[in-house]
Amino acid sequence: MYSIIVVPPPTTEDERDRSQIRLAPGERLTFGRSAPDNGLHIAHDGVSRRAGEITAQGAFWVLSNFSRAQTYVVENPEGAGEHVKVAPGRLDAPIPFEFSRIVLPAAGDLLPLQVWAPRHDYLSGSGGLDGATTAPAFSVDRTKRYFAVLAALCEPRLRGTPHAPLPTVDQVADRLRPTWPAASRTSVQWNIDYLAVKLRLKPGPESADTGPRLNGKKESLVSLALRFDLVREDDLGVLAGPPGRVTP
Amino acid sequence: MTEPYAVAVPKGYRVGVWEVREPLATGAFGSVYAARRTGESTELPRTAALKFLPTGTATPRRLTHLRELIEREIELYRRLKHPRLVRMYETLTVDDPDRPELDGATVLVLERAKGSLSALLAATPRPEAGPALLAQICEGLAQLHGAGWVHGDLKPANVLLMDDGSVRLADFNMAAELEGTHAYTPAFSTPDYTPPELLWTEIGERGRRIRPSADVWAFGVLAHLVLTDSFPLPGATPAARRDAAATYARGTDELRLSPELPDDWRRIISACLTRTHQDRVSGETLLRRVEAAAGAGHRAFRLPRLRPARHLRRTSLAAITTAAATALAALAYGISVWADGARGSGGSGSGASANVSAAAYGASELRTDRGIPPAYRLLIVETAHDCDQKDVTPVLIAAMLKVESDFDPDLADPANDEYGIARWTPRVLRWWMNEDGTPGETVPQPPFPPAESIPAMGRYLCWIAPRLHEDLPGDRRVLIATAYRRSYRTVNAAGGVPPDVRAYADRIAHYLKEYTPPDRNPP
Predict the structure, then answer these.
(1) Does ipTM surpass 0.85 in this model?
(2) Considering the domain boundaries, does residue A79 fall inside one?
(3) Nearest to B28 among A126, A200, A229 (CB)
(4) Pick from A8, A152, B71, B317: CA 20 to 30 A from residue B80's CA?
(5) B65, A199: Cβ pair inside 8 Å?
(6) Are residue B67 and residue B108 in the same domain, yes or no?
């Protein structure tokens, strides 16, 4: 029932093992240098003992800045520079982004702390907002990169045969590069992982496994997306340029 | 109703024998229009509700899930026929190449309702009939769950109110058949009625897992809304209420129900709105408690067990309404708001013609010229049809009523403690009085009008039939009748008709022959 996911900054040793912290509405997570006082311990001398607090509020979250002097900046990585500044001492500042990066200034380093709000709702088709309308369980933002990645994954099956092979991560990155020059294997993979969270994909039996399971994750995403019409033929417009480079 | 209709159908448009009239509602997946029948038909009613679902070829590959939802709904309608579930008469496909937006649309022809619970609540918050309506909604749920299905989207807009004041559940797009303890439903839901465990739940490729307890939660929300005109969880918006549900389920907040709720309903709603699905009350227990709470004036019996949709297939609407009204006249029970309408439409004006139809009701299965009172034919025939045992037939029930009481609804035999047209002994009737098979809360008191006695008799016979040993000699129907008198164990132990009821058995056999239409008698 969580609505907010906090991804701690990478540490040198366990780059791969970045455990996510899930918060349900109303739950709080404090972060800072002091281990006993904080839910999230950030071992960096440049960070305050009690640096701040993240509180999940329904589908969004609020940030409190406990430091005396430092302003925190919360960026929207896909927002072309869009950001929110949270001044020192400011409590419960609402953050409107679906993905955010809190940048903690720490003695010359900038530590990125990612916060995802995958439960953001978007208007779907004809449905109203009155709570009495039967609504799909998925709510996707068609302007986000994850949607472009999903569309690229679904493209061969939407255009071709229902059993067309799925594009590889590299092929997806190539397909998206005209509209997203920075697309890379890593960024595409990040979006696939995020989609699995966003669409609440049931983890497979061997979910702890990473590498080779990726194919299963893509397969599940595509079948879910096509089954519930999250991506339709007319959505393929987000993939500017002609198809063809995807076909193996 | 300002939103555009998902499927726009012009007034006067013809589909099959139906002529489209005014729009009734539009949902997330299709649009519903009133319709009237244009041709002659003995099977279809005069009016119906047509649900148009946009499955046309103009929208290739876009509506995978919609097709699946429709198949689900049709499947349920085909397989489940219960008095608290809306009936489907037929399905049609629009064949009209000149109108590409309609061509290929699937049309479900459904029972026409008077309105929905959401419309009633909008017009009359906290309706006086609330508890009685809830009891019937709960019955509908129990029937669905009993048949192994989960509704998945119970809310006021999906509860329909019929002309006779009874309630039917509708809209089975989300319904799913149970596989073990849970079912898979498409990942759609209505936020205010979604239990906390399904908020942001994990979703597999088959959809989300749902249990009958999800309907129980939705019923709790709905009951609170009907009785207090407010949602049980606080918040001005659905999003706020959803968060309140999540917070409550995590145990950080308590459930604070409206102080307006009477104690018994407070307990019922609390039992529905538990934090986890494991703690939630089961559908059966819920029904018992809801019926007890709906209590006063509700007595043991609810609205009569008539099955309009099935009747409609066989006779005209007017005949049914009148026949129903006649059969029910003895029941001094009605939901105040709606009963008047029902009586009005079944008024005496159409009496003559209706009696003719009632007298011929079920003529193919039950002779019309052997003195079976027309007023009971409908009850007898429909009661027999409610039972899936082949030996429990209209003829058997009629023969038994003849022998038991000579069709005397007022029979009272205090010496033997037997009353009414079916000679029920009160302490035995208690076990058969409720349609869902639950015993009555207390031993019922006579009089037992035919609308109660006959269906209860049918339920008992239907229970007896499979319990009699296969190898007993003689006519199964006679054996069933003697088991009604002496219990199935006695008949099994006696290896046939027990000696002390031989005379009774002979009379039953006589009337079985008497009432069977000529072409139906075994060679």
Answers:
(1) no
(2) yes
(3) A126
(4) B317
(5) no
(6) yes
